[in-house]
Amino acid sequence: MQIEDPQLRKAMQSLRENRPQAAESILRAHLEAHPDDVLALALLAETLFRFERNQEAEELLKRAIALKPDFPGPRHTLVSVLLMRNKPQEAFEQVAELLRREPANPNHHALKAMAHAWVGQHAEAAAEYAIVLAGNPQQPGPWLARAHSLRTIGKSQEAAEAYRAAMARFPKLGEAWWSFANLKSARFTDAEMQTMQGLIAAGDLPVESRVQIHFALGKALEDKADFAQSFEHYKQANALKRATLGYNAEMTSVYVQNCKTLFTGKFFEHFRGAGSQARDPIFVVGMPRSGSTLVEQILASHSQIEGTMELRIVPYLVGRISARTGLQFRAGQTHPALATDSQAPYPESLRNVEAADFERLGEEYLERARMHRNLNRPHFVDKMPDNFAHIGLIRLMLPQAKIIDVRRHPLACCVSCFKHYFPLGKDFSFGLGDLGRYYADYVELMAHWDAVLPGQVHRVFYEHLVDEPEREIRRLFDHLGLAFEPQTLRFYETERAVRTPSAEQVRRPIFRDAMEEWRHFEPWLEPLKSALGPALDGYADALARAR
Among 2, 179, 269, 545, which residue's Cβ finds the most Cβ atoms within 10 Å? Predict the structure, then answer.
């Protein structure tokens, strides 16, 4: 779109440079002189949307639409705003109006697909992406989005075909190759492996695509039992990715010590009775690749529990607190972000929070979670593994919530992470030493929560769940105070969208086939073993004590 007004061009440039405060100031001044400028209203709404001031954004967009109903831009933005405000019916009404006016516009169908995916209707999303591709097959995004939707609803064969179509059309798109590799039931052909090797040898791939194709080749060679070459590709993938990050393992260790200093039994006693008393949430925490998706699927097979997704609400609230009070910790990411030098860092800043604030935080958490709850069940699962770092805050703002820690053998868990491409938020996973230290920090922090919050975190050992599923599942529901239901043993029959990398595994009965896979790579794991230290040495004893 060509923008003639110089002030609006300036505001647009500020948005592109991620300076929304500047954009808001320019747009409000412009609207004082031109209150009916539809483009300015739409731009201001987009600016407020970035601040999550969604009610204001909705009002501005509806005003812009009333002034110019045939201008599609405000309706497109309004759909996203309405979804964020948990108004899916209104959002689909806006999409329907766009399609009524322009039924063949692929952008409108892509918007409808996004809306379906947002509310968990992934089969409908896949159908809409098929329409998008029929009208505009030149963009890789819809090809991948359709394949992801098919994978989410368990249509692995169709997803494999869709990923292969993307690989053929966009061979330098590493995400297509890695996504195919991450389908546990799919296997690369020899010709496809040769193509990947040629792409890497050519040397002109973008870094992220090179990383993803190395990961894909590692998986392909592992499937062929060529473990030395497989590990070499995993190693190169991780090294390339690690070089793009500034991860500092020491910051995680410091954070753990700060938590141990702040969150004492006396501290929790001081806030007894604070927080929202809602019993709805069940938090599943731990390391990635530990079996947390399996536990979530078991929980979601119960008639009283809804599975949602890896909700990013607690990290968002931590960020909100941190933006006002100092250092921000995001588990596993690169560095805390300094807000001011004069105020205490998180979590130390929680000393200055009033009891009433914890109740408000708890209620805000519940409100933000509501948009992901579609089944009207009394309880829901928040399966964000990183939340182990924030159990102190969770206990303060939601003291009646249940917390489940899923733990897996440190070598099995860390090697599985090392073989996996995480696009965001798992910066610790791209080096064996970093992985071992992070796992050890996780174990140390969980031991602290056990000490100061005795009996409030229920631990599920993956190995016990595999060996004696009924016993462990009954123990799980005993902790939750819910009656055992036989269908939870047949969790693999539960039909629901699963968006994590373990989507295929949880659609089949529990098998032992992944328990010892790490041993194929044992000759190269010394840096990991050294970094794990006591966390590795003590795992067998921890398993025995939990029997």
Answer: 179
Token output for 28 = 């409000």
Report d(CA 519, CA 225) in Å as an integer. Answer: 12
Residue 284 gets the label, from left (phi > 0), alpha (psi -120 to 50) or beta, of beta
- Beta pairing partners, 461: 407
Residues with Cβ within 8 Å of residue 188, at least 6 apart in sequence: 180, 181, 196, 216, 220, 223
CA nearest to 86, candidates 376, 375, 372, 496: 372
Dihedral, CA atoms, 217, 221, 223, 224, nearest 10 degrees?
Answer: 150
Domain 275-309+358-545: what homologous superfamily?
A: P-loop containing nucleotide triphosphate hydrolases (3.40.50.300)
pLDDT over 60 at 504, yes or no? no
CATH superfamily to which 1-103 belongs = Tetratricopeptide repeat domain (1.25.40.10)
Cα–Cα distance, 511 to 528 (Å, whole number): 26
Percent of the chain at pLDDT > 90 equals: 78
Helix intervals (H) in 224-354: 227-242, 249-262, 265-270, 292-300, 313-325
What is the rounded distance in angstroms from the CA atom of residue 523 to the CA atom of residue 519?
8
Q: What is the pLDDT of residues 419-468, one digit of tens each?
A: 999 988 899 999 999 999 999 999 999 999 999 999 999 999 999 999 99
Question: Which sequence spans correspond to the domains of the chain?
Answer: 1-103, 275-309+358-545
Task: Evaluate whether 115 touches 92 at the Cβ level (below 8 Å).
Answer: yes
**Beta-carbon contacts of residue 219 (< 8 Å; ≥ 6 apart):** 181, 182, 230, 419
Q: Which residues contact 42 (CB under 8 A, 6 or more apart)?
A: 60, 61, 64, 71, 73, 74, 77
Residues near 57 by beta carbon (within 8 Å), at least 6 away in sequence: 45, 46, 48, 49, 77, 81
- Strands (E) in 408-533, as ranges, are 457-461
Short-list 35, 55, 30, CA closest to 45: 55
Residues 96-154 have pLDDT tens digits of: 999 999 999 999 999 999 999 988 889 999 999 999 999 889 899 999 999 999 998 88
Token pair for residue 418?
Answer: 């090392």
pLDDT digits (tens, 9 = 90+) for 516-525: 899 999 999 9
Please give the Cα distance from 90 to 192 (Å, whole number). Answer: 45
> What does the alpha-carbon distance between residue 239 and residue 142 come to, in Å, rounded to a whole number?
30
